[in-house]
Amino acid sequence: MTSTPTNQQQPNAGATGWAGIRAFVRERWDLVTLVVLAVAPLVVPALGGALGGQVTTLFIYCILALGLNVMVGYTGLVHLGIASFFGIGAYLMAILTVPMYPFQIGFLAATIVSVLATAGIGLALGAPTLRLRGDYLAIVTLGFGEVVKVTLRNLEQITGGMKGLNPVPPPGAGVKIAGIDLGLAFAIDPRWFYYLSLLALAGVVVAMRRLEQSRLGRAWVAVREDELAASAMGISATRVKLSAFAMSSAVAGLAGCLYAASLSTTADPNAYDFNRSIMVLCAVILGGLGSIPGTILGVAILVGFDTVLAPWADSWIQQMNINPSGSSLLSFSGWRLAIFGLALVLVMRYRPEGLVPSRRLAAELHEDHA
Question: Which residues are CB-neighbours of 257 under 8 A, at least 6 positions away?
């Protein structure tokens, strides 16, 4: 009789478990991130204060960058005026809700109208520029952004000029549910806006994932790869480009609505200038063109650095009395643009596909380098 060995090698249950967890996180990163961010205000008290407002702004910029990613990442159209649609959405939200105008239709209705109107303006910009590519399209969108900024500044009777429009009422103003005044809750507790922006971001991510896998998403990529070949396969490049303009503008308009509501003002028109467009474009490139998680990571790095880390570092420098004279050379925020540029140079040199690239783009770049 042969005895059965008792010390047979068994699979390492711990290693298998960790591998499964890593695979789940990699495949369902959006769900894991949503759960972590949803629980964070319950365990991080600072999110009920100024930090909560800063993180809310971060969520809004993630939405804006995802809108730009439709144009630049999926369709391959260079867009340097995304901040103008951001501003249009903010001002339309304000016009439809502030007390100085007779509309006052409420946050949800104003958001729907603003998003649809912004999409229409995107179509109006895209229609005459369909034959433009590369640098020429970039110049047109840059010029459109400057036109919008100057228009917002000069139409003082409508936009308030450099003062902007305020006060933009919070979502749910005048609405009570279960004895809770929603408008008052949004006004005094930043966590309400935190969860509203997080919910909007989650909705945009889900929509982008569906579009990415849909017929329209594949058409965007086909036009980006080779417009002539896509047309030969029966894809209407005109419709595809117009849909990209409309979708990108609509998402940017949604971000603008949330931005105005969270600040209770539109801010001045200079808040929607070329620098804002370039910052969002840099975030998309840094994270990875055509990549949803890459876009969000790029915004978290650049905008998070600008709105969260830089103010904290400047405050720490003041507390330590390192810069008593207030010199810009010794302030952390004084070097932020140099750090932005250095980060982009390093990424373009050592990881041109971005930090978290889409599989398609990564494969294309590695094939080119082979």
Answer: 89, 90, 92, 93, 110, 111, 114, 115
